[in-house]
Specification:
Blueprint: H1 2-8, H2 19-23, H3 25-30, H4 37-44, H5 54-61, H6 68-72, H7 79-89, H8 98-109, H9 111-124, H10 132-136, E1 163-165, H11 167-173, H12 176-187, E2 194-195, H13 204-208, H14 212-225, E3 233-235, H15 238-244, H16 247-250, H17 255-266, E4 268-270, H18 271-283, E5 295-299, H19 303-308, H20 313-320, E6 325-328, H21 343-346, H22 348-362, E7 369-372, H23 375-388, E8 393-396, H24 397-404
Parallel strand pairs: 1-2, 1-3, 3-4, 5-6, 5-7, 7-8
Length: about 400
């Protein structure tokens, strides 16, 4: 059957071992076999998404595309790619808030709309802390950010030593992240990164929704924005970085873009990895501090960084070089936050259940601060802790480190 060949084209037949099932955050909450990778592959091998029933479409929508299943698959199956392609073939929508998800994807795909949305949300930050609308919009606490103008993107000059892919969040919603990233680069002896004019959304939201045409258009737009230079490209958002590295596969059938995508990916630099060596001289000569005076910090592993790019040690090593910090870990190890692009809109109750499992583990750490580099994770943590009135703060790693260095 054609569907069966599609499922197995990326890595052979599913061994049906179930390793992917127990690793799946959705399965861990629901306990339903068809919510895990093995169950979805079984259905994809037998049912055509073009003629999907409402139930089948709903099953395919209940995936975070986090990559946990692929990380443990003994045969290396590209399960999330198969699910994304199947979503592109669906003839019906699934999940909740369809119109809101559509509007969100449109805003991300069109820079003018995204800029307007960012302006509105920065104005909304003036809402009282107890405002229900503040929680609904996933806004951080009123004193957590200071409204600042986003950095002005510049043209790509071949002589520019370091470029910057800011992502939608740092460009439009919390430009403090972009400003802190630039500040840290200067303190680490790195060139000040220049945000390339014309860059836009990485396309992850469109890809996750099965809108592959839009995902490809956004990828091509970003390739054009960073063309004309061989300089490295700093990326401060983990989920953006993960999706940017997928451009060669996304554009594999587009010969005019494929080679350019491969060259683009070779230039990408992850935030903590780039800064690690440069900040060593700024931190190692500081005297150690007694444990009681150190700030307890939890580093949250973004799924896309942990599973797809295998970057877990660099952020922790970076944090460990600050004697005023005490790095703590979750008692049961890293966990998914449940955000998953627009998954939190499509399945808000399920997303909250996944998040609340994480928050329950977090309560045992006694951490005063949560830090991460995924902007989706930041939003999920901020909303979750605000709803529980937990006193811990949530900060992008760039913002946290920039406050610690003179």
């Amino acid at each position: 059957m054609e569907q069966h060949r599609t499922v197995t084209a990326t890595g052979g037949l599913c061994a049906k071992c179930g390793a992917c099932t127990v690793a799946c955050p959705v399965f861990q909450v629901t306990g339903r076999e068809y919510h895990g990778g093995r169950g979805k592959l079984h259905l994809l091998a037998r049912l055509d998404p073009h003629t999907a029933s409402a139930t089948y479409a709903e099953i395919l929508s209940r995936c975070l595309l986090c990559g946990a299943c692929e990380a443990v698959c003994p045969r290396g199956l590209k399960i999330t790619d198969e699910i994304a392609r199947a979503r592109a073939q669906l003839s019906r929508r699934a999940g909740e808030h369809n119109f809101l998800r559509f509007l969100t994807r449109q805003a991300l795909a069109h820079p003018g709309l995204a800029k307007g949305l960012g302006t509105l949300l920065r104005l909304a930050e003036k809402l009282p802390a107890e405002s229900g609308l503040r929680l609904r919009l996933n806004l951080p606490a009123a004193d957590a950010v200071t409204a600042k103008a986003p950095p002005t993107p510049g043209p790509v000059d071949p002589a520019t030593p370091l470029l910057y892919f800011a992502g939608c969040f740092a460009t439009h919603l919390q430009p403090e992240i972009a400003l802190a990233t630039a500040s840290l680069c200067r303190k680490a002896g790195q060139p000040t990164p220049v945000a390339a004019r014309g860059q836009g959304c990485c396309g992850l939201a469109a890809y996750a929704a099965g809108d592959l045409d839009t995902a490809k258009k956004l990828a091509c737009r970003n390739l054009e924005a960073f063309a004309g230079s061989e300089a490295p490209i700093l990326v401060s958002c983990a989920s953006c970085l993960s999706h940017l590295t997928s451009y060669p596969a996304l554009l594999a059938d587009e010969p005019e873009w494929r080679d350019q995508a491969i060259a683009f990916v070779a230039r990408l630099r992850e935030f903590s990895t780039l800064l690690l060596a440069g900040l060593a001289d700024q931190t190692t000569d500081r005297a150690p501090q007694p444990p009681a005076s150190r700030q307890r910090v939890l580093y949250h592993d973004p799924c896309h960084l942990r599973f797809r790019l295998k970057i877990t040690e660099a952020p922790r090593t970076l944090l460990g070089r600050f004697p005023q910090l005490q790095l703590v870990e979750l008692p049961h190890g890293p966990q998914c936050c449940g955000h998953g692009g627009l998954f939190h809109l499509a399945h808000p109750t399920l997303s909250a259940e996944i998040r609340d499992r994480l928050l329950a583990d977090f309560a045992a750490t006694g951490a005063e601060t949560v830090t991460t580099t995924c902007t989706g994770c930041l939003l999920q943590w901020q909303q979750g802790l605000a709803m529980t009135e937990h006193p811990s703060r949530v900060m992008h790693l760039a913002l946290l480190l920039d406050t610690l260095l003179p």
